[in-house]
Amino acid sequence: MKATARQAAERPAGPGTGAAIVEFTHVSPRTCALQGHPTVPLTVKPTGTAASVTVAPGGKAWVKPTFVQVLGEADGH
Predict the structure, then answer these.
(1) What residues are paired with 32 via a beta bridge?
(2) Cα–Cα distance between 24 and 54 in angstroms, integer?
(3) Sign of torsion over alpha carbons 63, 3, 61, 54
(4) What is the DSSP string of 9-76?
(5) Exposed e or buried b for every residue in 23-53, given b needs 16+ CB within 10 A?
(6) What mean pLDDT value characterizes the chain?
(7) What is the rounded distance in angstroms from the CA atom of residue 67 to the CA atom of residue 16?
C-alpha cells in the first residue's frame, strides 16, 4: 500500500479541530484487506465500528480521521 494524506475540505466546527483525508493505493499484484481503525502517533479514541475493506490491485481506499487539539499537549506540558 502507498499512503498519501491531505487536509480535508470539510472539517468539524470549532477551534482546534481538523480532519484529513488519507488515501491508500494498492500497488501489489495481489488483493489485500484493510482492517480495523487507522493508527497515528497520537492518543486515539476510535468511534463507530471498523469494517474490513478488500482492495483489488490498483484500487484505492480512503479514511477521514478527525481531531481536536488538546491544549498543552503539543507544547510539552
Answers:
(1) 55
(2) 12
(3) negative
(4) SS--SSTTEEEEEEEEE--SSS-EEE-S----SS-----S----EEE-TT-EEEE--EEEPPTTTTTT
(5) ebebeeeeebebeeeeeeeeeeeeeeeeeee
(6) 86
(7) 8
Q: 10-26: per-residue pLDDT in tens?
A: 888 888 888 999 999 99
Give the model confidence (pLDDT) of 22-45 as tens digits: 999 999 999 999 998 887 777 788
**Rounded to an integer, what distance in angstroms lies between the CA atom of residue 55 and that of residue 8?**
22
**Can you tell me which residue has the cell 482492495?**
55
